[in-house]
Amino acid sequence: MKLTNPISSSEVGTLWLTYQEKTLIMRILEYFKKKADDDEARNIFGGLWQELNYYVIEIEKIFKQQGIVVPNGFNKEDVNLEPPNYMTMDLMSCLCGF
Predict the structure, then answer these.
(1) pTM score, whole prediction
(2) Which of 3, 42, 64, 85 has its CA 20 to 30 A from that of 27?
């Protein structure tokens, strides 16, 4: 199948990098969402995650349509959601003068 509008190599590189960045940020948001003490913060992190997920899916579609290998990106195995909280409100108030 011949593509009518193939993307350029610089566009592939930009999409590849964007995919890597967005999947990394999604993993960070998953950690923050799990560790958040506040429902509002959890909702914000979840909303941001959903927005990024939309773009990740769209980039995957472009790669597949163009016959380009989809990058591995960062996945759930790349993050440990169980470490202890290092930044508590007591420590924050001490550091930031609250």
Answers:
(1) 0.78
(2) 64
